[in-house]
Automatic annotation (TrEMBL):
Main subcellular location of this protein, as a coarse class: membrane
Secreted in keyword set: no
Name of the protein: Cation diffusion facilitator family transporter
Cation efflux protein transmembrane domain location: 8-202
Subcellular location: Membrane
Transmembrane segments: 7-29, 41-61, 73-94, 106-129, 149-168, 174-194
Length: 325
């Protein structure tokens, strides 16, 4: 968590400095196109401040009111960031639409381009770093903030090109027209962030993460693990919670069952790349399981093994043993 706080704090300080630079460029040029970037920088600062708080809250230990911890606040943070970006985009579109029909003189475009280009490069480097770190930790808040900064870099690059185009062509209405295009791009980016946050808040399955879990289980499965089914996953910030049913030989005593459950838990936490909390319900095997069971020297086997049922995403997420498929 200290690493996450440090990254967000760097983003917050950098965003504040860049915001001042962008508004200086706007007052220097009086360009709506520059204002689009300056207005979005306000969102960067506010979003980073909220992200800093959400990461702090996500690190608070679970309590009676929050038995699964406070990790979901990170999804809420991403929602706020997306909403703020969307509002900024809509304001930019409205102001630029008005200015399209009522253009105002603009000036010092070359100097403004230099300032905006510099801020874009800084945002690009920081955004790439945050996305890389956000995936490694993992933290959806840091990754979302990084993607936002990369969006800002794309905006700044387009801004520099547009300002130079206006400077050389002297076509003033391009300032507002290009601002509208950038505003639409910002709104689309906001939609993607909101969509992702709502998916997390509604416990939508993250198939990339679950697929990796299933892959590890399949490649490292033990002969005692007859099947895994009814697997469900929920993300709580940087932590994954999985419910599943594990079928084991029905002659195992409680101690052996407990050991097998611990092995599943340890395997995923060691090799799946994400901290995972398991809630495993164990099922006893039935005679119908024998035809795909690999357990050697089984004292109750009713028939020889004749099928190999792979553990695929589709198989393990079904709410029934494999023999019922």
């Amino acid at each position: 968590m200290n690493q996450q706080k440090r990254i967000i704090l760097i983003s917050l300080i950098t965003g504040t400095v860049l915001m001042v630079m962008k508004f200086a460029a706007y007052f220097l040029t009086n360009s709506n196109f520059v204002l689009t970037d300056a207005a979005e920088s306000i969102v960067n600062v506010v979003a980073s401040a909220f992200a800093f708080y959400s990461i702090y809250l996500a690190s608070v230990p679970r309590d009676e009111n929050h038995p699964y911890g406070h990790g979901k606040v990170e999804f809420f943070s991403v929602f706020i960031e997306g909403a703020l970006i969307g509002i900024a985009g809509l304001i930019i579109i409205l102001k630029s639409s008005y200015s399209f029909f009522n253009p105002e003189p603009i000036h010092d475009l070359v100097l403004g381009s230099v300032i905006i280009g510099t801020t874009g490069i800084i945002n690009g480097v920081l955004g790439y770093y945050m996305i890389k770190k956000g995936k490694a930790i993992p933290s959806i808040t840091i990754e979302a903030d990084g993607r936002h900064l990369l969006t800002d870099t794309v905006t700044s690059a387009g801004l520099v090109v547009g300002l130079l185009l206006i400077y050389f062509t002297k076509i003033l209405w391009l300032d507002s027209a290009l601002s509208i295009i950038v505003g639409l791009y910002i709104v689309f980016t906001a939609y993607k962030l909101i969509r992702r946050s709502v998916a997390g808040l509604m416990d939508e399955t993250d198939f990339a993460i679950v697929s990796e879990v299933v892959k590890v289980l399949s490649e490292r499965r033990h002969e005692e693990w007859i099947d895994i089914h009814n697997l469900r996953a929920q993300k709580y910030g940087h932590e994954l919670h999985i419910d599943c049913h594990l079928t084991l030989p029905n002659y195992f005593d409680l101690n052996r069952v407990h050991e097998e459950v611990k092995l599943v838990d340890k395997l995923i936490n060691d090799e799946a790349g994400i901290r995972t909390e398991f809630f495993i319900h164990t099922d006893p095997c039935l005679p119908y399981c024998c035809h795909y069971c690999s357990m050697p020297n089984c004292p109750i086997r009713s028939e020889a093994k004749r099928d190999e049922i792979p553990w695929t995403l589709e198989n393990v997420m079904r709410n029934k043993k494999h023999y019922e498929q």
